[in-house]
């Protein structure tokens, strides 16, 4: 476990970074993703599982990847259930998430918040089978998800700036000129592939004192 950067989060923390030679998915510690399907909004509720992953990584740089589940399911569901305006739900999600991240940073964890990944198309047999297994309705359109994603990213950026949390915002490099996922990055109906890790290393600066020379991105040498 000689890598210096670890991605922690929902299933996107796996697909965006798995099998990368510099950034490791935290699954290498557990054999499976204990935080798969967890929302940014409710991250604090999963503190026990989260700390099981984080404690061995105290000296590592950590990429937190949460928010896509909120965009795809939680925000619209709560809007329909409670009548709370979408904008208010998005703001609350960002505030709750980043406030918890700030507490963890105060405890010594070197956390960088990753932007919400672009929404997938969720089309085809595999997506249909996945939707049948959901515990509550998947009722957001692609247009709604794209809109929520951009709003949540903006809210993350604002909160991270206020709380002095490093924010990895490479969203513009993950989408094409129509705002959809770049085709060369698509892994499946929901995820992008681990080329995302190279984009993170190219456009975000991690503290050099915590990285060995071999950890530098080749494109930056």
Total helical segments: 9
**Poorly predicted spans:** 209-221
Give the percentage of residues in beta strands. Answer: 5-15%
Helix amount: 40-55%
CATH superfamily assignment?
A: SGNH hydrolase
The total of beta strands comes to 5
Structural class: alpha/beta
Kindly provide the name of the CATH class.
Alpha Beta
Named CATH topology: Rossmann fold
- State the strand order across the main sheet: 2-1-3-4-5
Task: Please tell me the CATH architecture by its name.
Answer: 3-Layer(aba) Sandwich
Report how far apart the termini are.
23 Å
Morphology: globular
Average pLDDT confidence is: 91
Taken in chain order, the helices and strands follow as EHEHHEHHEHHEHH
Question: What is the alpha-carbon Rg in Å?
Answer: 17 Å
